[in-house]
């Protein structure tokens, strides 16, 4: 993959002969001159210990990146993304909160 093809936030497939045995997927967090910092999002279970040692992040050269495909038989890393939803109050809750005032 070329530097121009890599965008921050994109999910890409990658391989790293030094750190992980199997190909994995990651989200691009930062782009450097010849490589990109990836947050590992999906990986083979045999690499679980190595991924944990890397704190789910790895720097990979552009030549080892490719367009991501759906990974099968892989483990998904947990992310720090949190979804917040507003919970509607019931009529009974509204009455009790008014009586407390």
TrEMBL record:
Tree of life domain: Bacteria
Annotated spans, Disordered: 71-101
Annotated Basic and acidic residues bias: 82-101
Name of the protein in its database record: DUF2187 domain-containing protein
Native source species: Lactobacillus ultunensis DSM 16047
